[in-house]
Every structure is written in structure tokens, then in C-alpha cells.
Amino acid sequence: MEYATGALGTLLPKLGQLLRDEYRLQKGAKKNIEDLTKELECIQAALRDVGEVPLDERSELLRIWARDAREMSYDMEDMVDTFLVRVQGPDERPSKRKVKRFFKKLWDDVTKAKIRRDIGQEINDIKERVKEVAERRARYKFDDITPAKTFSVDPRIAFLNTKATDLIGIDKAREEVITKLTKGDNNVLSAQQRIISIVGFGGLGKTTLAKAVYDKLKGPFDCTAFVSVGRNPDNIKNIFRNILIQLDKGRYEKFNFSIFDDEMQLINELRDFLGNKRYFIVIDDIWDTKAWKIIQLALVDNNSGSIIIITTRKYEVAQQAGGIYRLEPLSDDNSRKLFFARMYDGESKASNHQPDDEVSDKILKKCGDIPLAIITMASLLEGKHMEEWSEILNSIDFGSKENQQVEDTMKIISFSYYDLPPHLRICLLYLSVFPEDYFIEKDALIWMWIAEDFIVHKKQGIMSSFEIGERWFSELVNRSMIQLVEKWDEGSRILVHGCQVHDMVLDLICSISSEENFVTILDNKEGASSSSSSSPGKVYRLALHNNRIVESHMVGMGRVRSFISCDCDIDKGIPLSSFTLIRVLAIYNGVFGRKHRHLKHIQNLLHLRYLQLSGGEAELPEEIGNLKFLETLHVYRLLNAKVVSLLTQLRCLRLDLGNSVSATIFTDGIKLTSLEELEVCFGYHAFKSQEPWRRFVKELGSLKELKVLRLGSCNAFSMEVQIDLVESLRSLGKMEHLSLHAYWSSSADTATWEAAGFRLPRHIRYLLLNGINFSGFPSFCINRLCLPNLSHLSLSVDAIEEQELQILGQLPELRFLDLKVESTAEIMVCSAATTDPAGDGGRFFKKLRHCTLNPWEVLLLPSKDGVSFRMRRVHATVLLGSEWNGVSSGKGLAAALMPRVHKLSFKVFSVREFKDENHGDGLCLEYFASLQNINVKIYIDDASDAEVEVKEVEASLQRAARVHPNHPLVETVRYNAPMFPEWKAWAARYDELYV
One Pfam family for this entry, by name (predicted)? Predict the structure, then answer.
């Protein structure tokens, strides 16, 4: 579906569905449908063209017509869906009495005949409406109307000539790009042609960075050029013309370019000019791979040490060009420096004007570390007293058009939005239903997209609708429209994938959603709707944020397709009768009043496809089986789980059953054979014996379509249950995500699992086995040959050998590792050496970004070949050390270990030992070249740990972060945990051996 075309993308196939013989429509109705389809296809094409024109460039007349056409399409789809729901109808329980069955069938036939007559009349009515919309289009000749463009200067020009020295934080990026171009050879350029592609979100300063590198390096080159392409390069000839003029102004400024008939002649002219010259060319702001391929033809590789830099927002363009450099947002520290430097005319003056107050923090948060937004905000506040900042901040909306500077900034951001294909635009707009800074779970979001028909399920297609949704989600991440977030829940030991929307992007999509009447938002701050006032009574998607659900909100909500409630008070229940056409109903963090948790009328929402109730206990009626279109059910604390078995068409089921129910969820077996995702969390009392638990696990093998399985239990997985699970997993060939969690650890004999035939599909990506403690590392199934796509692994083992550690480090796609080693040995050394006989350069954990090693001491050991690491048991203490057994730290060595780790987590159980091991600093963090976050939990023994020693440990971590090139963020949390006697005994033994 495309938001610009309303519901036409899904309506047209449904009209074709009505023509099938099984619906037995009258001939006149069929003829009307055929005529309607032809007219609607033309309207759909016209709406697509309108959708490509930015809102501020549309005429008022065109905007009104497009709105009416979209609303008509929604009304038509509602009519067709209602017909399909009524014809299919809820299944009745079979009657044992023949006479009753006969009269029931007779009544159904009479009822459905009436429904068919009704649909025929409704189609007649809608045909007249379509005719009127089409006539208006012809009357006003919209096809001939030029968009209402006004003269405007590209807002980026204002920032192009900004001095790079004024932009705090540019120096580091500039030196990194120069190092890439020179390969670190003291800024000496080689004869080989070098290409760098700077890619990142709009407003990050890609152009400024390219200009800074260009200005610093262009001196020794024979000729140079810096040209901008833009989103719509309407004439590629002009780009080549601009390049030639900049390369040799004297020769080409008055040159008669009209002698060139086509692009190829210009390409040849440029190639001939470059010849053997050493050139430096920057191609700025390129959006299209086709445009790059054409430009690249002219940039001859003459082995003269030439440089090409391109800047782009699109990752696929950077991939095509090569030499990718991802420009990241500023650090919090640099954001603050930039803001005050722009406020007070230079960094030196700003050093005396940096109050660490709540208002400036809110300002910088609003800007989200985006340089363009920071500069814009600083210019708005310049000359204003600090007392006025709060008032100005509250009045600024990046989605409004009341301030030219804000509008220019948002126009730059909007370029990325309008470059999205239509199917991604509507998916992004849907995110406006969530509040600011909200964590949006990926899987839930994709199922919502599916329920809204943004993604049409094609059973004959190679990819499922969910897989298509995953691809679209990744595209939005790669285009920097959403920020990927992975949350590791320490309590449940479950990794949750999701995203957040940058504040500026959220302001943009909320503004567009309101203008186009796509989403209506009611929040506690405004107390009123933020939807467009041009369509009173037409609410299609309703979002409530931090509000109280009251019946007055629900007046005129009969056309609502999605209702999203975030952090709202619903103690008086939800007036479900208002939502007759609803498809998505999601309650986030809303606690039901005891009288309203049963949701009596929910069985009447026959269009419902997605139901999520989280935040309190809920009870579903047995008539829930009437919801034949419901595909996703997610309920927290479901009190009567037995009703789930009635929903045989479910594709996604997520339940937290808690302690209040017994294991009677599937008393007659698991009949939900369409399930693609299953998540069930059982409480302590869910199973009174192992038998129902085993029966449930055995029946999992019948879910052949299952791709995601998450099981959580407050009880241990017995060996019998483990073997049953192994048996079931062998039948689940489509599995991509397996997550098992038990609060009480269960021992697992690795040899028994191997003998039972434990194997996983090669395409599995997530394997999180928490609460199952293997006797040894299961290398028979976890290795780069068996699991080449494994990206996330959580594993607990009694012991791990050096060779097995290397097997783990060689997993080619591993990005997340949570390894827990339970060995009782006091000291066990494992190392990942830096020399690799296979010729892989000794680089282990090449793509790892998040690493948790617990409970081991981790020691980095530099050598002349690089750096490796060793682990040893230290009474559940994890340390980083630069010196051990006489091996001293070296500087400037190539990091062979975990070159992409962004986050490192560990615990300090002994403050004294940590301080002694590291001599107060020298943690070797510099070997983690990509490090961004350090998370440390410090367990304090009040009896022996002095406050001054704890502060010394915290200070050493901060010092290590300051000297690291990335200045990673250090988060330390203190826990009061007196040392157990056995740990004290070990500590004494430690002193004897090493002190």
C-alpha cells in the first residue's frame, strides 16, 4: 500500500476477488465492478503522481482533490471488507441435530443472498462517487497543472561555505578520511586511484566533511573540482559541464558545449582532458546508482594517484562506489561544544558560557547530535537571554513552517523522505503513532504493517510478508530514517530488536501525517487532536499518548483502522463498540480496571487482525474464535489461555501466562499450524508435573511454518524435556530465531544432545540458550560451516577450550555474544591467538559489536603480532588488564580482536583486585577500535571496599575512555554485595599466587 494512493493498492485486488464465482454476485454488480476497476486504476496513477510532489509544492486545488480521492478509496475498501467478513462469517459449533443444522444452513443461505444484494446496491452508489471524482479531475485538468513551486534557494548552500574549523567534531572525521585515502602513510598519497564514499543522514555534515578533506589535500593535484548532483539530476550533461569548468576554467568557461550531442561525447571529452593528470574530484549529494555509474565512466583510472570523494544519504550508492565511510552523529560533548561555539562566536569564547542546565540539555536532545539542527537552534537562540530559552524551545516545532531557518532545516531532512519509494513512506509515516523517544519493537511493528495491508501476503511468492517487512525495516535503517536499537533484558535474558525515530524525523512525519489526515494523535500535552482539520469526522488511525481513555475521545471513530494507546489510563475499559472497522488494536503499558479486563465485546471486531494487550491482566471471551482474520495476538498476563486454541489462523502468538494459569493452553494439541512466531512465558506453577510440559514441547514439532520460537519458564528444563525439544527442533526446518530461557539453570550433557541429533537450520540467525548449561561447548553444531549466518549467540557452558574459543571467534556473522562459563576451576586459560594457519590473518570476532563475558577475567595480551585475549576464572570477576605474567602492554599494534565491538559489558566483584591488576589504568581499551559504550557493574563489599578505592576504579575507567580515540561512554552502576566466604578464601589464594 502507498499512503498517496489511499487504499487503492489493496482495494483493486479485492475488487478482482469479488468477481470470482464463489461470491455469486449478480451480473449487473459484476459489470459495475469491472467499470469501477478501470476508472480506479486511472485515479491511482494520478494519485501516485501527486504523491511525488512535496506538500509545500502542491496547489490547494490539487491537495483537496487528492484528499477526497483517498477518502473515497478508504470508504470503498471498508465496504468490500465488510462484505467479505459477512459472507465468510464466524464459524458456529456443529449441531448434533439434523433439523437444526438444516434450518441453520437455510438461514445462512438467505442471509448471504441479502448480503449480495446489498453489496450490489453499495457498488452502484460508490460508482457515482467515483464518477464525480474522475469528472473533477478532468474538469480542472490536474494532469496539466504544474506543481505550485515557488522560487527557493537550496537551503544546503548556506552551510556549504561554513568554515570546517567552526564545526566542532569535524577534525576527527577529517583525519580518519585522510588516513583512509593515504593508508596511514603520513599523508603521502600513492599512485593508485582512491575512492571514498561518505554516507549518512541528512544534516550530519557530509558536504562539510568532504570540503574539509578537499581543502586540506587539493594542493598538489593537477586539477580539482567540487560539484553537487542533487536529488533530481535532470540533466547529467550539466554535471559534466560543471566538472570541466572547475577543472580548467580558462578553457571551458566560454566553451560551446552545444557541439556535444549526447552524454557519451561529454564523457569522452572529460576522459581525454583527465588523461594522465592527477585529479581530485568531489561528487557531492548523489542519490542514484544510475547517475553514479554514468559519472564513473568519465573518471579515468590513470594510475596517477587521483582521488574521488562522493557524499550520499543512500547506502546502496556508497556500496556501488566503494570505500564506505559512515559519518556518525556528534558525541554529546561535541554537540554541546558546537552549540555554544555557534552561540558565542567561537569555541574559545564559548568555554566560559556552557551552563550544565536542564534547558540546554533539552535543546541538545531535540537536535539529536545532528550538526545542522544544532546550528539552526543556536541561530534561533542567539542574542536571547538564557531565561528565554525554555519558552522558545517549547514554541519550536521542527514540523512547523513558522520560522524560515527551521523550515530550511526540515526541507533538508524531507529530501530523504521524498526519496523513499512509496511503500517505505507509508511504513515510516505509521511510526508517528508512537510517542517521542519510544522504543518500537521490530517484530510487532512488522505485524502491524501486515495487518494494515501495507504489506500484502502473497502465498505464491518466494518471500513471506514478514520477510518482506524485515527487508523494508532494514531499508529504513540503512537510509538513516530510523535508528536501530537492540535491548538486552538482563532479567529475562532476552534480546529485543527495535528502533527509535529521531526527534526531527518524528516531527516531520507527524507534520505530514497530520496534513494528510493519516494519523490523529491525542496526547496529554496538547489535549487536542493533532490531525488535519480539513477532514472532520474522518479518523483512520488514532493514537493516545499519556492520556486517559474516555468515551468522548471515541465519538465518530467508526472508520478507525488502528488504535494505539501508549501509557494511558484505561481503568474504565475501552469502548470497543466504537471501532467497527478496526484492524490494529494495541495497548502499551495500560492497566485494565478489574471490571473491564474481560473485554466482553471484542468478539464483534470482525475486521481485527492485530491485538496487543500489555501492562495488566486480561481475559478474552470464548467468542474470540469469531475473529477469523486475527493473525497476531500478544497478551500480557492472559487469564484464560485456553481460548487461544480457537484461533487456528494465527501467524504470531505471544503470551505471558504468569503464575495464574495452569498449562492447559493447548489441551487438544497445538492446532495453530499457520504460526510463524511463537513466544510463551510460563510461571512457576504453570506445570504441576513434567508430563504436560513434555507434551507441549513435543507438539512444537508440528508447527512446520515456525520461524521464531521463544520459550521462557520459571522452572528448569529437565533432561527429558531437553531431549523432547531436540526431537521437535529437527522438524522445524524454517527456524531462524530460537530463544530458550529458564530462571533456574538446567544441566545439559553436550554428548547427549549430540547423540539425540541436535541440529539447527543453516539459516538460523539468533540462538539464545539461557538457563541450559552445557557440559562442554557444542562445537558439533555451532561452527562456521553449520551456522554461517549466526549473528546473535547467548550460551552457558561448564568449560571452553582454546580451540573451541577460536571456533566461536570464526563465526563470520557473529555480532552479539553473551558467553557464560560456569567452570569451577580456579584458573583456566584460553586464548585466541593472532596467527591463523588458515590465512585469515588471525582476526577473530570480526563483526562482533556487543560482547559480554561472564564471569571471567579478561586479559588483553599485546605482542609483536597483534593482540589476543585470555580468560580465567576469578571468583566471578571480569577484569581488563594490560599486563599479566610478565607480558607488558605495547602501543600502536593492529587490533586483531573484535575490531567492530561497540559495546563491552563486564562486572567487577573485587574492587581491590581490579585496581591492583590494572595499576589504576592501562586497560588496553585502545585495541577495541570501534568501542562506543562501556557498561560496568561494580559489586561493593562494604566490609573491605573503601569509598576511595571504588572512586579510583571509576576514575580509571573514565581515564581509559578519555584516551581512547572514540571517547566511549562509560556507565558504572554500584551494587552492595558483601563478598561470600568462599570468595574471600579464593582471594587469599589469589594473593599467594600473584601478589
Answer: Rx_N
Q: Buried b vs exposed e over 929-944: b needs ≥16 C-beta within 10 Å?
A: bbbbbbbbbbbbbeee
Residues in a beta bridge with 592:
570
In degrees and rounded to multiples of 5, residue 654 shows phi and psi of -135, 115
pTM: 0.76
Cis ω before 575 (30° cut-off from 0): no
Query: 520 Cβ partners below 8 Å, 6+ apart?
Result: 529, 530, 531, 539, 540, 541, 542, 543
Nearest CA to 668 among 692, 651, 689? Answer: 692
CB 673 within 8 A of CB 651: no
DSSP lists the bridge partners of residue 851 as 817, 904
Strand partners, 441: 498
Output the nine-digit C-alpha cell for 725. Answer: 525439544
Cα Rg, the chain, nearest whole Å: 32
Angle made by CA atoms 833, 836, 842, in degrees to the nearest 5: 65
The answer to whether the beta carbons of residues 24 and 116 sit under 8 Å apart is: yes
Q: What distance in Å separates the CA atoms of residue 663 and residue 645, rounded to the nearest whole number? A: 13
228-244 average pLDDT score: 81
The label of the residue with cell 504544474 reads: 146
Q: E strand or H helix at 43, and its extent?
A: helix 27-51
Pairing of strands 440-441, 494-500: antiparallel
CATH homologous superfamily for 170-326? Answer: P-loop containing nucleotide triphosphate hydrolases (3.40.50.300)
Backbone angles phi, psi at 745, to 5 degrees: -65, 140
Rank 317-331, 346-360, 649-663, 828-842 by mean pLDDT and report only the highest: 317-331
Residue spans of the domains in the chain: they are 3-144, 170-326, 332-410, 427-500, 856-994
CB 623 within 8 A of CB 643: no
| Residue in the block written with cell 561493593 | 940
- Where is pLDDT greater, at 384 or 207? 207
- What is the grid cell recorded at 151? 522560487
